[in-house]
Specification:
CATH topology of the largest domain: Immunoglobulin-like
Strand content: over 45%
CATH architecture of the largest domain: Sandwich
Structural class: mainly beta
Largest sheet: 8 strands, mixed
Distance between the termini: 93 Å
Radius of gyration: 30 Å
Helix content: under 10%
CATH superfamily of the largest domain: Immunoglobulins
């Protein structure tokens, strides 16, 4: 019966690098050794390029007149790739509101997260994956950079924050007058349309008489 003499229980490969299985076995006659996962068979010492979908459990077999098996777990590691930065609520955000930015990166080992710049009133959540900015003002406008890093590399992605200044509304007689941040005025139907759009976007309720 064959016997494995050198076959690690766990293997760690780096994506993109050349790798192979190194399981050795003894027996008479000398057994052949293969490792298999999802009906894909690799011969021992066969060279191939590691890909992340090759992670998982393999069954290695040593065969002559008989067969013995051994499970081998493979982990393929790779540098971070930032998939997205999710912003809640969506841009532009009203001045004075709270806003969160969540960075989503794919990597093995799991990446660490950091942000630049670090501004006042910022709270870090979910192991720094998420930042929350409270009572956002125009001082918070600009680009925020998510930095994801593990031992194989570092990646960055930026997200722009745009702050919408609060609209000032006044009533005049007989027409309704709305003054925005640029001090331009509209009356009657145009003014009402602006107010309605503001209400729908900010989820505020007003009553008009």
């Amino acid at each position: 019966e064959p016997e494995f003499t050198d076959c690690s229980d766990k293997l760690v490969w780096l994506e993109g690098q050349e790798n192979s299985f190194h399981c050795q076995a003894k027996g008479h006659p000398l057994p052949t050794v293969t490792c298999e996962k999802n009906n894909t068979i690799y011969k021992v010492e066969e060279k191939f390029t590691a890909m992340r979908n090759m992670s998982g459990e393999y069954i290695c077999r040593a065969t002559n007149f008989d067969t013995v098996t051994k499970p081998v777990t493979v982990s393929v590691e790779y540098e971070p790739k930032i998939l997205s930065i999710v912003v809640q609520p969506s841009m532009p955000v009203l001045e004075g509101a709270n806003i969160t930015l969540t960075c989503d990166a794919d990597a093995i080992p799991t990446p660490t997260y950091s942000w630049h710049p670090q501004t006042p009133h910022v709270t870090f959540l979910n192991n720094n994956r998420t930042i929350q900015i409270k009572e956002v003002t125009s001082a918070h406008e600009g680009f925020y950079i998510c930095i994801a890093q593990n031992k194989h590399g570092i990646k960055t992605l930026q997200q722009k924050i745009v702050v919408d200044r609060e609209v000032i509304e006044t009533a005049t007689n007989p027409a309704l007058f709305v003054q925005d941040k640029n001090n331009r005025g509209d009356t009657t139907d145009a003014a009402f349309s602006k107010i309605l759009a503001l209400l729908l976007s900010s989820s505020l309720l007003y009553y008009f008489c």
